[in-house]
Amino acid sequence: MYGQLHEGIVITDASSTILYVNDRVLTITGYHRDELISNNPHLLSSGKHDAEFYKTTWQHLVTNGYWHGEIYNKKKNGEIYAEWLSITTSMDEHGTIYYIGMFIEIDPAINAVSSHSSKTEEVTELVMKWQPLLQSYLPIVTEKIITNFLQTTQASTGKDEQLELASEAWRAEIYAILSTIFSDSMTHEEMIKSAHQYGERLVLSGFQLQDMFKLYDIQTACIHDTLDRFSLPQEEKSALITALQTRSHEEFIQRLYAMNNVIHQFIVPDQKSNDQLMTWQEIKNNVMQYIANLPGMIGLILYRNLPNDKFVPEILVSNKDHEMQGVIQIDSLKTYLEQIIAEHDVNILFKNAIASHQTDRMITIPDYEKLLCPEEVAPVLKIVRRFDMRSAIFIPIVHPIHKQKMTISLFGRFPNQFESSWIHSFTLSLRKFIEQQWILHQPTPTESALDQFTAHAYRHRLFHGGLALYGQPIIDTVTGSLQKVEILARLKLEDGTIVSPFRFLPLLSRQELDTLFQRELDIALAYLATFNDVTHEVGVTINLPPLTLLNNDCVRWVQAAMASSQIAPHLLTLEILEDHDIHFTKQEETIHQLKQIGVQIAIDDLGSGYSSLLRLSSLPIDVIKIDQGLTSKLTQNPNTVVNIIHGLIRIGRGMGCEIVVEGIENEEYLDAIKMLRPTMVQGYAIAKPMPIEEIFDWYQAYEWPNHLSHVKTPLGALAYHFCFEQDEHEIEKFSVDRCPLTNYLGTHHEESPDVHQWHHDLHKRKQFHENRIRITSWLENKVKEQDR
Predict the structure, then answer these.
(1) CA separation (Å) from 769 to 272, 286, 332, 788?
(2) Edge-to-edge strands of the sheet including 405-412?
């Protein structure tokens, strides 16, 4: 594509290996193409420049992304020649670095001078002299360039419609570029600044780098052909053509540099060094702000797609140089979006977000002005024009595990901004990055999403009078006595509405989680001191966020709270979520320090996630809490889940830990779990979470409803039978008449003589394994029948 250029073109990779040369290079240097490809440009070195010259050149190129100046090189025949060389750094859509060198051989016959400043002065003088004539030809040259460019591009790509949409914007840019080249009043610094602006606008309007070279080739030819028709003395005409081509070359190099600089900024942010120290909400906010501040962006909206096909604008961010966010708040975009969603409006601004969500593919709008019909979508057109939106892309984000969805809507200020291949590569990488971060930091599905306005209100309320602490009793399985109270944070709104932690905890930053933990700790220990003054010793358990474990002040906060409340350390249990490995070494250090001051450590939600039992065995754990998600599966897969819970209880006992089974939501679960003999149980069948000031009254009225020897439900019978069959010697301890299962079967299933016989034979050790399997299968069917 560079073959017909008047300049020589050399492209190398990042290690300076030559990948491409055009025909002009071969003409100037005298080398054959195969002599240059895979070689180093040092082959052309004249020996006139020392190592310091090349070192300075390289440093400028690396620091600024470009270098230009006069340099001496050597042809194949040994002739040394001067050239005006410009080098720019380039990057393709895959992030691969290339260096593009363009040079013009300096011809002594036209009195070219080596000083760049004097060259600039010479060009300016010639342009000033012929300014009226040049200005009169500006529209003609512009139209000629754009016509030739569109014809050659359409012939090679066939994208007539897309090019037609872009041609109007490109025509204006080309006219502006020529005005810069033909100007008699613009300084060199002003020309560079303008070239940077043109380059940025062109690359953000869908102009590819290869298009830029093609355009430059056509531009050079058109300027030459047009000026060649001037009625001027031949010597002055040649000098003017050479002067304008020199300025055109300089402007092009600066424009090319600006284009590459824009592309270099579209790199997916590297969160690896920081993401483990931030919450998922912080990561989302940071990444969205980073994207919104990229060149050409107006702003973005991150939608959460809920199961009922509703869209919640969770994050709305504007470019740092744009007033979109402030104006949108004034215009109550939140209300407008809610109205659109409620009415299932399919206007052009938002229906693409819905389509992207439904098809899981990216959708672009090349130019709103070309697609919108004012009569049909007046409200949308008002927003588009008010915020200078010209284009958009809608990126679906799908959680790899639980398949929940988000959609990112990016809005650009240039037409065709999201049509280039390098933009598509960036958005694909961005989508992959966010999906990876989502699964890492939020592996389980969330039930709901909040728009950022409500989220801000929740966060403010939580730390300004809205924190309400609830407690849920934890009961000893054998005695039924109250052993501990788990402290649970709730958000109480001004109207009295109680908000679940599942709604507000994901909104908090790491610092806010630390603050919440300290407040919970202070309030809970103060309450515990009052409670224990009037009854037996009861402990409290408080959730310790994984990120708070990484705070160097964590142990000091706990010590200060215990000293203030004068609570014995063993009455405080800190629950650590079985989370992914974030700085596990640092977490382990903090856990050991907490143990040294006498605090108990619990692993919460065992069986829900990431940790291995080997890892748990290396920690000084006092309490293991079995996840309620596992308990909730008891009636779906009764025998399997009973087996798993029983196994976890035995492992915990082997580690010397207390075992708490969570999620005891009904009498059936309680009937089963008590047979497995964990240390403690917790759940709605015992008590729902309640304001902590109500726990004492609840405790005074509470009665333990079950005795371990009683079996009341099919699930309880299955759990008892499972434990019974684990040790054949247990059979000898009970006669069939004293067996709890005999009493259950006689009370609830007199009409099933077969199971009575199997059970009777089991006690006599007749066909032990066959009868064990028969009873298990029969009881499992009864559990499922009752569940239906």
Answers:
(1) 55, 61, 71, 29
(2) 311-318, 297-305, 405-412, 391-398, 363-365
- Confidence class for position 707, pLDDT limits 50, 70, 90: low
3-state helix, strand, coil in the chain (%, to 5): 55, 15, 30
Whether residue 564 contacts residue 522, with contact meaning beta carbons closer than 8 Å, is answered with: yes
Q: What is the dihedral of CA 211, 214, 219, 221, to 10 degrees?
A: -170
Beta bridge partner(s), residue 8: 103
Helical packing angle, 116-129 and 131-157, nearest 10°: 110
Secondary structure (DSSP) of 580-625 = --SSHHHHHHHHHHHHHTT-EEEEEEETSSS--HHHHHTS---EEE
- DSSP letters along 153-219, please? HHHHH--HHHHHHHHHHHHHHHHHHHHHHH-SS--HHHHHHHHHHHHHHHHTTT--HHHHHHHHHHH
Which helix H or strand E contains 471, and what residues bound it? strand 467-476
- According to CATH, where is 3.20.20.450 located in the chain? 452-693
**DSSP state letters, 639-659:** HHHHHHHHHHHHHHHHTT-EE
Per-residue tokens: 499: 């908000």
Contact 487, 691 (CB under 8 A): no
Distance between CA atoms of residues 396 and 398, nearest Å? 6
List CB contacts of 770: < 8 A, sequence separation 6 or more.
Answer: none
Does residue 755 or residue 233 have the better pLDDT?
755
Q: Check: CATH 3.30.450.40 for 275-441?
A: yes
Mind listing the pLDDT tens digit for each residue in 293-329?
A: 999 998 888 888 666 666 677 888 888 665 544 444 4
Q: How does DSSP classify residue 739?
A: -
Fold of 115-264: Globin-like (1.10.490)
The two tokens of residue 264 are 């270099």
Rounded distance between C-alpha atoms, residue 257 and residue 572, angstroms: 62
With b meaning 16 or more CB within 10 Å and e meaning fewer, what string describes 360-379? Answer: eebbbbbbbeeebeeeebee
Topology at the third CATH level for domain 1-106: Beta-Lactamase (3.30.450)
- Cα–Cα distance for residue pair 270/275, rounded to 1 Å: 9
Cα pseudo-dihedral 511, 512, 513, 519, rounded to 10: 110
How far apart CA 117 and CA 115 sit, in angstroms, is: 5
Range(s) for CATH 3.30.450.20 in the chain?
1-106
Q: Are 378 and 409 in contact (CB under 8 A)?
A: no
Cα–Cα distance between 10 and 95 in angstroms, integer? 20
Instruction: Supply the pTM of this predicted model.
Output: 0.71
Q: Is the dihedral of CA 337, 340, 342, 344 positive or negative?
A: negative
Residue 297 identity: M
C-alpha span between 311 and 349 (Å, rounded) = 14
Task: Indicate the pLDDT class of residue 60, thresholds 50, 70 and 90.
Answer: confident
d(Cα 507, Cα 680) in Å, to the nearest integer?
32
Length of the chain: 788
Helix axes 740-748, 714-726, angle to 10 degrees: 150
In terms of Cα–Cα distance, which of 80, 81, 98 is closest to 89?
98
Helix 116-129, helix 234-265: angle, nearest 10: 120
Domain formed by 452-693, architecture: Alpha-Beta Barrel (3.20)
pLDDT in tens, 2-31: 444 567 889 999 899 999 998 889 999 999
The span from the CA of 90 to the CA of 69, in Å, is: 19
